[in-house]
Write a structure and sequence with these properties.
about 375 residues, alpha+beta, Beta-Lactamase, Helix Hairpins, Heat Shock Protein 90, 3 domains, five-stranded mixed sheet, elongated
Length: about 375
């Protein structure tokens, strides 16, 4: 409703027939109600401000974005309702502003708002603020970017396999030939040479392992599914890691769900998932006497496996780059472990969730669907004729 129009109407009330005044007021009320319904139906947030930047109107979507009560917010300065923005610099006469905004309450959202002045014949009447939720769009953009990054890595992997894999095989063959010739020498002469040869072959094997990890991380793999006992896979993995855990005096606490149903997974791939995550957990433990807790539970729809440690945790700057290849905080790590883990879990239709705070440990949840999440067609109803 434009105040200028209302001022003109009030100034002419004396010369207007009472019946016409009634019709005008009824029309204004009806139009105001229609506009309110239109604004409430929008998914975008709508906020109307007066010239002093006080809230005149706020639709339901805007209230949900910022966690506000429209009754309490109406009449209040917008700066007191949405904190963290310099409204004096934003709400300049004659200037429209478009800005992105990240909010953490009541939900973590990425928003974009458009702030434009409302004028009547050059006289400022306030501002209108339109707010859009970009959270889903941003997530889709990040997923697209990740797909493009993995596609680029896949192309790179093909080149790496050719340019490095073949020379490594050739070197290994030549070292084997050298080893045969060394065995023909006298025992006293071949001792130092055998040590050097052993070191060279170990380094070649290490490079070959890194290459295989890289290829496994970026190449799409189709899991060979079968009914597996997740508890059995967990315990077998712990047996493999038992010497390292014992040498560090690390306690492993198991809280396993009773009567856990079999899971339709690739047992070898999921053993690799558990191996990487448990190994990451104990490597994050400072010194001796650390603790790792492993918990399983299930619902009608999914399995949830939780691996928690009381280690050093993950800093905020590293949390955003956990799944980037070759980004690692370990001096001897390849930075591919979590990338491989997430790829395997996602190929099984699941998701990995990481909750960590620096100096307070890390908790990892694996959400694995019990059934196929792909859509299915329902059978057509039978009709008796």
């Amino acid at each position: 409703m434009k105040p200028g129009f209302l001022d003109k109407l009030v100034s002419r009330l004396d010369s207007v027939d009472p019946g016409e005044v009634h019709q005008l007021v009824t029309r204004l009320i009806r139009e105001k109600g229609t506009l309110t319904k239109v604004f409430e139906a929008l998914r975008e947030g709508v906020i109307i401000l007066d010239p002093e930047s006080r809230v005149d109107f706020m639709n339901t979507a805007a209230c949900q974005f910022f966690g506000l009560d429209p009754k309490r917010a109406t009449g209040e300065l917008i700066a007191s309702q949405i904190r963290g923005l310099d409204w004096e610099s934003l709400a300049r006469p004659g200037h429209a502003v478009s800005r992105d905004l990240e909010v953490f309450y009541p939900d973590h959202r990425y928003l974009n708002f458009y702030l434009a002045p409302i004028e009547d014949s050059g006289a400022p009447l306030g501002h209108v603020m339109l707010v859009r939720d970009l959270t889903t769009t941003r997530a889709e953009a990040e997923e697209t970017l990740e797909t493009e990054r993995l596609n680029a890595l896949t192309l790179l992997a093909a080149g790496v396999a050719h340019e490095i894999g073949n020379p490594l095989n050739s070197l290994d063959i030549h070292l084997q030939l050298m080893g045969r010739k060394l065995r023909k020498l006298a025992a006293g002469d071949r001792g130092p040479l055998e040590e050097n040869l052993k070191t060279a072959r170990q380094e070649i094997q290490r490079l070959d392992t890194i290459l295989k990890q890289f290829l496994h991380a970026v190449r799409p793999t189709k899991p060979t599914r079968e009914r597996c006992d997740l508890h059995f896979l967990l315990k077998e993995t712990l047996k493999l890691l038992e010497p390292e855990l014992a040498s560090r005096n690390i306690a492993v606490e198991l809280d396993l769900a009773e009567f856990l149903p079999p899971a339709n997974v690739d047992g070898g791939q999921f053993q690799q998932v558990f191996y990487n995550l448990i190994r990451n957990a104990y490597q994050a433990l400072p010194g001796q006497n650390g603790r790792i807790s492993i918990r399983t539970r299930f619902t009608e729809y999914e399995f949830v496996i939780t691996i928690e440690d009381n280690g050093t945790g993950i800093s905020p700057e590293h949390m955003g780059a956990l799944f980037e290849p070759y980004r690692t905080t370990k001096s001897s790590g390849s930075g591919l472990g979590l990338l491989i883990v997430r790829r395997i879990i996602r190929e099984h239709g699941g998701e990995i969730e990481i909750d960590s705070k620096e100096n307070s440990g890390t908790r990892i949840h694996i959400h694995l669907p019990r059934g196929d999440r792909s859509p299915r067609l329902l059978a057509s109803p039978t009709i008796d004729l």
